[in-house]
Write a structure and sequence with these properties.
The structure holds two protein chains of two kinds. Chain A is α+β, with helices and mostly antiparallel strands. Bound molecules: zinc ion.
Chain lengths: 608, 473
């Protein structure tokens, strides 16, 4: 034995010590520290979102209005990038070299993920690119769909689809960055039906992001559910015709089918082409539209608050009749105006005295000042404020002063002043009918939206009830639309009283001398209507007209606003009558073509 | 006397341990490369098919080994060493360049790596030299000779460049130690290599605290006298509180490292008083060593931060696995730890690994084969592999010590040194305890040359052992 033989023990000790150290470290890595298990999960799987096709939108006659077109996002997988002919790629994509370089550099996590490099390349570009794809390793194409419109109409009604922002992602867990979402109109309100349900494929990937197959046999995969198709209530022909008529005016048309509350057309002009807010140029176009002084993005039909003017007179008549403060035969005289205790409201020249029907026919201001005075100064109530509140309740029952709860996201309420408003302004018990007499002719502290006025026309057409105006007729795969749209809402005014008002509105159009809206006459159809002028403190007054037709079993109720059109009869009534005629008869009578031509030739866009 | 084969004298324990490692190793290579296109285990286009051929080839070689007269290993040790050196020179000139290194010959479609066989040749040559009658390793002349013997091939391999394999030659230190290299040389080498690595791997301040604690615990354990233990404890406490106090008192600009050094200097006064009072001369030595190593550590740290440019620092950090780098060494290490860690206690099961299979771990069937074991077989599997390796090493240690022949014993220690170095460094680097230097796990890793070289290395020794009763060279 040599004298170093004992060193074998030291060697043995070293082997054991080192091995023990390795085992201890492994125990820590594999048993104690769990963080590595999570990293492994994330390492090896990739969740691919499967986007379902968004639901299609048809008009009430099942004409396809909104559908999808495929677009292609060029994706980049930085890890897989190899040398490629950058000049050629730039030529195909029609971008410059700077853009290509910065795009590649911008890709955030250069390890596993694929990032969008160029979004929404056109089908033509894609066709060229696809054939040469093999020349550009590391680039992929992901297909998405964008909205496409068969007619450039109803931009406000349809709304648009945009990309979700961070706030939406935070508030709704469904969305992730890059998802599309309906922002306004039908697209916005019916987002959850239209979008369907995203699916996912969980894929097993290797370090280069190359797909190796489904993760755990596709156990976590979810099929995408296609969005539901919607049949909307609008009549595309009518909508298009209305937009054509209104092209040179600021204003709005809302047409409703009284028997259902279905909105036949909803027009707000100036409008824009819906395809402007689709795809890559959306942001740019949106900014341009937003800056336009004509406010094409502003949906006047729902959001413009106008004083209703004389179109509100039928409401006073109905309340007065129901309250028993007037009757069909109540007659009041008019000396080109209403004068009482220092209050004067002017009127135009007409026969005098008039009964109720004639009062509506002639739109006599004095007549309705008296009606309103009878309502508010009704001795049955302890004071004018109490009577006013009764009046206000009636008015609110027609859907004024609050939203109609229609299927719009951005509907506004209008304004019907509460009695406290006047208490505050004049002092309690220090005001009466005369103090607030301008309400009698639809002016003063009263604001309504075109949608609410169309609903008023529908309520009168139905002689006492309405259905909440809505834009959707049916939903594919569902039996009904939302319940509230099929429930009749009754106004607390008797049918008989409506008949009297209807007579007046008939005569306003079809009566003899003194009728305010004779221009709205249509051959073979009895149109009932009421003109109005909405006071505009900033310039020329607005022309307003509400109507429904035919008189018996009406099919259409309509409200038309033409800003700066001054008299109801000058713009709103002719346009409304053309709309009615178009809808009921399908075409314009040759004898009225001149009227159509006149409306099309005039231009009030530059009016203030 | 005629050289005969003594089948009964073959050490079957070592052979069985070898076969266990080979079979388990192959199963793991199979697991890494297995996919849906599985045709046959002999499918040569796959790693496992290829490796199986190598395994079978090596079995044939083992038989040939036993047929050769055992004395030729002694007689041909120098010629074999010479050929190895010539091959290493040749590969630098005519080798195929793979990954910027000239390490391979490509002959008839087969890759051959001379550096793997250089280890075998060096082990033989060292055994031949050190088994000489008059050779004493602790003489300067012998030390110089053996240094040259391992330095020449290591240098040739290092310039390929293949630093990992070159470093393997430092593993022969274990053999020198057993054969009489002074213990303090061994101790100092281990100590300073340890400090060097830890300084770069850990926060230096932690290292200093560690060193101080260890030094005094060692002192206490060595003397085993109550008063020494008490003094050691006192010193630790004094040092600790001085550090705490200084951390609060000194301005923020002073680094923690410097705080500890100042604390050490201040508490040295207390130590000296204690040393004087209790007449602890040995404590002086410990104190000197401690100061020396801290000074060394500080120097390493200072040089690292002040002499290396940031990108060079990063390169060192990546090499040490401290920084993750997407496509390089640091990345490998991180992925390797994820793979092993995700295996948990019992693993994901055979063929169920995702990390290794999906090439998240690079070099997965060669240098990082241990990841597959860790992922699919879990802590149970990794421990088992370590246990089998340790069993083989201990068996080899036992076999070495029973050799009458000095040549056989020294060769056996050479074999032991190489396997121990590969085994410990390979596993340590996959779990982040050692810089990633890229050397294979013996008998496990995919690769014909290294598998063949390890098998030859082992079975030459088993052959020598089988005749231990008959011949003494
Ligand atoms: Zn009048």
């Amino acid at each position: 034995m040599d004298r170093f033989a004992n060193r074998k023990n030291i060697v043995l000790l070293m082997i054991l010590a080192v091995s023990a150290g390795l085992v201890m470290r492994l125990f820590y890595l594999q048993v104690i520290d769990t963080s590595y298990k999570l990293s492994a999960e994330n390492n090896s799987k990739r969740i691919e979102i499967v986007y379902p096709a968004r639901g299609l939108i048809y008009d009430r006659n099942h004409e396809l209005l909104v559908y999808n077109q495929p677009v292609y996002d060029l994706m980049i997988a930085p890890f897989e990038l190899q040398e490629f002919d950058s000049t050629e790629l730039c030529e195909i994509l029609k971008i410059d070299m700077m853009r290509l370089r910065s795009g590649i550099r911008r890709v955030k996590n250069p390890q596993y993920r694929r990032e969008p490099f160029l979004k929404q390349i056109s089908a033509e570009t894609y066709a060229v690119l696809q054939e040469k794809m093999h020349k550009f390793p590391g680039f992929y194409v992901r297909s998405r769909t964008l909205r496409k419109y068969s007619r450039e109409i109803a931009a406000h009604l349809m709304g648009y689809v945009g990309e979700v922002d961070e706030k939406m992602i935070e508030s709704d867990g469904y969305y992730v960055m890059g998802d599309y979402i309906g922002v306004s109109g039908i697209e916005g309100y019916y987002e959850e039906l239209l979008r369907g349900e995203k699916g996912q494929e969980v894929l097993l990937v290797d370090v280069h992001g190359r797909v190796q197959g489904p993760f755990q046999g596709g156990r976590f995969d979810r099929n995408a559910v296609v969005g539901r198709d919607l049949v909307c209530t609008i009549d595309a022909e009518l909508q298009e015709y209305g937009e054509k008529l209104m092209k040179t005016y600021k204003g709005s048309i809302v047409a409703i089918e009284p028997s259902t509350g279905e909105i036949l057309s909803l027009i707000s002009t100036p409008t824009y082409e819906p395809s402007l807010l689709v795809g890559r140029p959306r942001t740019e176009n949106y900014i341009r539209l937003e800056k336009d002084t004509l406010e094409p993005l502003f949906n006047r039909a729902l959001m413009a608050n106008y004083p209703p003017g004389s179109t509100f007179k039928p409401v006073h008549a109905l309340i007065g009749l129901q309250e028993g403060v007037i009757s069909r035969n109540s007659s009041f005289s008019c000396v080109q105006g209403f004068y009482a205790r220092g209050v004067s409201v002017g009127c135009h020249f007409h026969e005098s005295p008039l009964n109720l029907v004639e009062g509506i026919q002639n739109s006599c201001n004095a007549y309705f000042c008296n009606v309103f005075r009878n309502i508010i100064d009704n001795p049955d109530y302890s004071n004018p404020a109490e009577a006013y509140n009764i009046w206000r309740d009636y008015v609110m029952s027609f859907g004024f002063g609050s939203t109609l709860k229609s299927d719009f996201i951005n509907e506004l309420t209008g304004f019907i002043a509460p009695s406290t408003y006047y208490d505050h302004y004049y002092g309690e018990n220090r005001w009466n009918a005369l103090t607030v007499i301008s309400l009698a002719i639809g002016q003063g502290e009263i604001l309504t939206t075109p949608l609410q006025m169309a609903n008023l026309a529908a309520t009168i057409a139905n002689k006492g009830y309405y259905y909440i105006p809505h834009t959707i007729k049916s939903i594919a795969g569902l039996d009904t639309i939302e319940n509230r749209f099929t429930e009749r809402i009754t106004v607390p005014v008797d049918t008989a009283n409506f008949s009297i008002v209807t007579e007046g509105m008939d005569l306003a159009v079809n009566g003899g001398a003194g009728s305010t809206a004779r221009i709205a006459q249509i051959p073979d159809v009895i149109v009932c209507g009421k003109t109005g002028t909405a006071q505009n403190p900033h310039g020329k007054d607005h022309s307003v007209f509400i109507a429904f037709a035919p008189k018996n079993e009406p099919d259409i109720a309509i409200a038309v606003y033409v800003e700066h059109g001054e008299w109801g009869a000058s713009y709103a009534a002719p346009i409304a009558s053309l709309m009615i005629e178009k809808y009921l008869n399908g075409s314009i009578d040759p004898g009225r073509k001149w009227l159509e031509a006149t409306m099309l030739s005039r231009n009030l866009l530059s009016e203030q | 006397m005629k050289d005969r084969l003594y089948i009964g004298e073959i050490d079957w324990i070592a052979v069985i341990l070898y076969l266990t490692l080979v079979i388990f190793g192959w199963l793991n290579i199979f697991a890494v490369s297995y996919n849906n296109q599985f045709r046959s285990i002999f499918d040569l286009s796959t790693n496992y098919g290829d490796q199986l051929i190598w395994i079978l080839t090596s079995f044939v070689l083992i038989i040939l080994l036993f047929a050769v007269d055992h004395r030729s290993y002694y007689y041909f040790a120098y010629p074999v060493y010479g050929i190895a050196v010539i091959l290493l020179l040749a590969v630098l000139l005519f080798g195929t360049e793979v990954n910027n290194a000239r390490s391979w010959f490509r002959i008839f479609g087969v890759n051959f790596q001379p550096s793997e066989f250089a280890k075998l040749a060096t082990a033989l040559a060292l055994a031949r030299f050190l088994s000489g009658w008059d050779v004493k390793i602790w003489t300067w002349k012998s030390m110089l000779t053996v240094s040259l013997m391992i330095g020449l091939p290591a240098m040739l391999i290092a310039v390929q460049p293949d630093w990992g394999t070159a470093l393997v030659f430092s593993g022969f230190v274990l053999l020198f130690y057993r054969e009489g290299m002074p213990g303090w040389v061994m101790a100092m080498m281990t100590f300073f290599v340890g400090i060097f690595l830890i300084t770069l791997l850990l926060v230096p301040a932690d290292l200093v605290i560690m060193l101080v604690s260890i030094a005094f615990i060692v002192l206490a354990l060595l003397s085993r006298k109550t008063k020494h233990v008490m003094v050691s404890a006192a010193i630790c406490i004094v040092f600790y509180f001085t550090t705490m106090l200084l951390t609060d008192v000194l301005p923020i600009e002073v680094t923690q490292y410097e705080v500890i050094l100042i604390a050490l200097a201040l508490s040295t006064i207390v130590y000296l008083i204690l040393i004087y009072k209790y007449k602890l001369k040995r404590l002086l030595l410990v104190l000197a060593l401690l100061s020396g190593s801290i000074a060394f550590s500080y120097t390493v740290d200072y040089m690292f931060h002040n002499f290396l440019k940031p990108h060079q620092q990063m390169r060192v950090n990546i090499l040490l696995g401290k920084e993750t780098d997407v496509q390089n060494v640091g990345y490998n290490l991180n992925q390797s730890k994820i793979a092993i860690g995700s295996g948990g206690f019992i693993g994901k099961g055979f063929l169920k690994g995702t990390q290794t299979k999906l090439s998240f771990v690079p070099e997965q069937s060669t240098d990082f084969i241990f990841c597959t074991i860790g992922e699919e077989w879990g802590f149970v599997g990794t421990t088992l592999v370590i246990v089998v390796f340790v069993a083989l090493l201990i068996r080899l240690l036992f076999l070495c010590e029973r050799q009458k022949s000095k040549f056989a014993r020294i060769y056996g220690y050479g074999l032991l040194s190489v396997i121990f170095f590969h085994f410990s460094v390979n596993i340590a680097m996959t779990i982040g305890l050692f810089p990633v230097i890229g050397i294979p796990l013996p008998f496990f890793s995919y690769g014909g040359s290294s598998f063949l070289a390890f098998t030859l290395l082992l079975f030459i020794f088993i052959r020598l052992d089988s005749v231990r009763k008959v011949y003494v060279i």
